[in-house]
Design goal:
Helix 3 packs antiparallel against helix 4 and helix 5 packs across helix 6. The chain is of the alpha/beta class. About 45% of the residues lie in helices and about 15% in strands. About 30% of the residues are buried. It has one domain.
Length: about 150
């Protein structure tokens, strides 16, 4: 079974992310942002999906695996520890559970990478999503670092 990876694009470029994904042999990028828009060039949903497609990497956005606004606000305010309980409660919702089940299926099929903004996975919800997937699939989680 392939590894499950995660990546953040804070402080980097689209080209650097694409190179990192290709080097890691990622077949599918799972966008776990609640709001798949970005002020960083190339990271809004349509542009990102198109760039990934040009590089042979599939794209899916699973909005239900994103952090709700109160959790995002806590991180922005410098309190990432407040995000975890908010996110974990959110993950009990029907939509989040359905999309988590979908992510587990996808992760078993090919090499997947979870994408969110934060460079440091320890201050991002994507590590919790990766742990939830890995708990069932047994996959090793690799947090990719973009140069």
């Amino acid at each position: 079974m392939p590894d499950l990876s995660t990546i953040g694009y804070e402080g980097t470029t689209l080209d650097a992310v694409l190179t990192t994904l290709k080097d890691a042999k990622v077949g599918l990028l799972i966008d776990v942002r609640a709001v798949p828009q970005s002020r960083k060039p190339g990271f809004s949903k349509r542009q990102l999906a198109a760039a990934l497609d040009e590089n042979g990497i599939a794209y899916v956005h699973l909005q239900g695996l994103g952090t709700p606004k109160p959790g995002r606000d806590a991180v922005r305010a410098g309190h990432p520890e407040r995000m975890e309980p908010i996110f974990r409660h959110h993950m009990t919702s029907d939509k989040a559970q359905a999309e988590l089940a979908q992510a587990k299926i996808l992760a078993r099929e090919r090499s997947c990478c979870l994408l969110c903004f934060e460079k440091d996975h320890t201050s991002c919800h994507r590590r919790f999503v990766a742990e939830m997937i890995s708990a069932e699939t047994g996959q090793t989680v690799v947090h990719l670092n973009v140069p």
